[in-house]
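Researcher: I need the complex structure. Ligand is nicotinamide-adenine-dinucleotide. Inputs:
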Amino acid sequence: MIIGVPREIKNNEFRVGMTPAGVAELVVHGHTVLVEQGAGEGSSFTDEDYAGAGARLVSRAAEVFAAADLIVKVKELQPSELPQLRAGQVLFAFLHLAPDRSQTEALLRSGAVCIAYETVELPDGRLPLLAPMSEVAGRMSAQVGAALLQRPNGGRGVLMGGVPGVPPANVLILGAGSVGCNAAYVARGMGANVSVMDIDLDRLRQLDRLWGNTVRTLHSNRHDLERQVAEADLVIGAVLVAGARTPVLVTREMVAAMKPRAVVVDVSVDQGGCVETSRPTSHDEPSFLAEDVLHYAVTNMPGAVPYTSTLALTHATLRHTLALADRGWRQAVQEDPSLARGVNVLDGHITHRPVANAHGMDF
Ligand code: NAD
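Model: Output:
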C-alpha cells in the first residue's frame, strides 16, 4: 500500500503524522511511504531522517494526495487540502467533525473513508489516541503554572518547592483523570504541596495507592472547593464530563477570593473550561489577568512541545496505521471494534452517531 504523510498546514501546528521510526516500520512491512519535504521540520525530524528510514520524499502535498491510498495526518484537512481527498482513499487524523459542518460536508462529498483519532474508543470508554495529548498537557500544566507563579511573569512570586524553612506552593488540581494525574506527577516532583479533587472516589483511591499521603486526595464538592481554591497558589482545571460542556466548578466569586496574582491553568478550556473567568487563549498570547488572578487557557497546549507530542501521538497511532496498511481498512475495522468506532465517514455517510446527531443527519 502507498501511505502518504503531508506537511501540516494548520496555523501553529508543528506536529507531524508519522515519525521516521513509523516509516521504517511500514517499509519493513512492504509498504511505500511518501513524505512531503519539510513535514517533520517542526518536530525536529529532517528530510534526511525520513529518507534514511526508507521514505520517498516528494516536494508537494498534491503529490502525496494524488498517489497515497492511506493519508496519515495530525489535524483535520484544511480548506486547500479538502478538494484533494478522493473516493476510496483512507484518511486517518484528528477530525473533530461535530462542530465543523463545512469539513463534514466536504468529507461526505469526497467518498473517502475518514477515521478520526478522537473517536477510537476502547470497550471501557477510554480514548487511547486522545490520552497521550492529555498526558502532555497535564505535565505541561504544572510547568507552565510554575513559570507563571514567578513575579516577572506576572505571578505572586512563589517557588513551587519552597526552600528549607519556607513552605512550598499550594497546588490544587481539579479532576484526577489523565490530565490531573500527570499534573500531580510533575507538581509533586517539583516539591509542591499537591491536592487533587474529584467526584470519582475510585480515581482518588488509585492516586492514594500510588502516592500515599504525599498527595492529598479530596472529594469535590462546592463547600470544600471554595476553601481549597482560596488557599491555592496554583489551580489546575482538569475536569471532563465526556461529550458535554465542562461544568463550571470555580465561580468568579471564588476566583476573586483567591490570593492576589495566584495562577489558574484551565486545561479543560477546550471543552468550555471549569473556571468561570477563563476564556480560550493561544500560544501567541497565552495568559491574561482576571480578578487579579493570572489565567492560562491555551486550547492546544501540546502544540508547544511538538517533538514530545509527535512521538507520544504516533506511538499510539502506529499500530492502527499498520493494521490499516497491512489488512486494508475493511478487515482492520472488522477485526478491531475500537478502530471501528473511529470511522466517522464512509461512502458519503456519517457512521458515528454523535457526529450525525450534532449535524441532524441520518446515521
Ligand atoms: P479524564 O476523563 O481522564 O478526566 C476527567 C476527570 O474529571 C475524571 O476523573 C472525572 O471524574 C473528573 N470530574 C468530572 N466531573 C467532576 C467534578 N464535578 N469535580 C471534580 N472532578 C470531576 O479527562 P482528561 O483526559 O484528563 O481531560 C481533561 C480535560 O483536558 C478535557 O477537557 C480535555 O479535552 C482537556 N485537554 C486539554 C488540552 C489542551 O491543550 N488544553 C489537551 C489535552 C486535554
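Model: Summary of the prediction. The chain has a mean pLDDT of 96.
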